[in-house]
Design a protein that fits this description.
- By secondary structure, the chain is α/β, with parallel strands linked by helices.
- The chain is built from six helices and 13 strands.
- The chain is 27% helix and 27% strand.
- The termini are far apart.
């Protein structure tokens, strides 16, 4: 990839297609598959923060913004929403996103073929919370990498970012090419874009390319899913009845 200053910044934003947090989660086929029946899917929130920052670069610095997703045809409405928000074009890698390394390899091929020096993604997806793909992608490409990013400025090939660390924040500087794992703070919730009618109509005519995956095989597979144990009933004890509390902690909870 070229490291020289470009006339027009080309940004690739990685989009995950995830269940809305209000969805009821169930499994099927002997708890080996996620049941999508009746589930509403949305743009992964961390990815939406990254996308909104990319749109800011488009409006302020003339960048072009492409969104990419690894998934089946059912993910295209999510990509169309990203186009309605303001992305210029979309790419769908026609493959089941089985694990982080497989997804990172597919995305790396898109980056190489598209000549992108800036890749924005959420630091993790809302469904599996693996947090693996941005770092793996940077390693495969040999790009610089910033994770947990809460602030991002790019001027030419110079990058200034603010990232979250234990107990505070850190400002770092670097150079393109770069992969950024973003989160809330890279933009705020109030900055998120709601597609308007013009955006929705224009999204219908914007390019959505479908590309076939590389020959890489998935390294892992899901064997079984299970839900957390249901919460037990809460027993209320009067603050004046310390003896009962001690007795229950000793005989029922068995923690003392």
């Amino acid at each position: 990839m070229s490291n020289k200053k470009q006339d027009r910044m080309k940004i690739l934003v990685c989009i995950s297609h995830v269940p809305d947090t209000t969805s009821k989660i169930n499994f099927t086929n002997g708890d080996t598959e996620f049941d999508t029946a009746g589930v509403q899917f949305v743009i992964n929130p961390n990815d939406e923060y990254a996308l909104t920052r990319a749109i800011w670069f488009k409006e302020k610095q003339g960048a072009t913004v492409t969104v990419v997703n690894v998934g089946g045809a059912d993910t295209e409405p999510t990509l169309r929403k990203a186009l309605a928000i303001g992305a210029d074009e979309a790419i769908r890698v026609n493959a089941n996103p089985t694990d982080g390394m497989f997804v990172a390899k597919q995305l790396a091929e898109v980056v190489k073929n598209g000549g992108f020096d800036i890749v924005l993604a959420g630091k993790e997806s809302l469904d599996y919370n693996g947090g693996m793909v941005p770092g793996m992608l940077a390693a495969i490409l040999g790009y610089n990498f910033i994770n947990s990013c809460e602030g991002l400025e790019i001027e030419g090939t110079a990058v200034t970012a603010i990232r979250q660390i234990d107990g505070g924040k850190e400002t770092v500087v670097g150079q393109l090419p770069i992969v950024v794992g973003g989160q809330k703070g890279i933009v705020e919730e109030k900055d998120l874009r709601i597609p308007n009618m013009r955006g929705i109509m224009s999204a219908r005519t914007k390019a959505l390319a479908i590309v076939e995956p590389t020959g890489d095989a998935a390294a892992t597979k899901s064997v079984k899913f299970e839900k957390p144990a249901a919460k037990t009933a809460c027993k209320m004890i009067s603050p004046d009845n310390v003896a009962e509390l001690v007795e229950l902690l000793h005989n029922e909870a068995k923690v003392i």
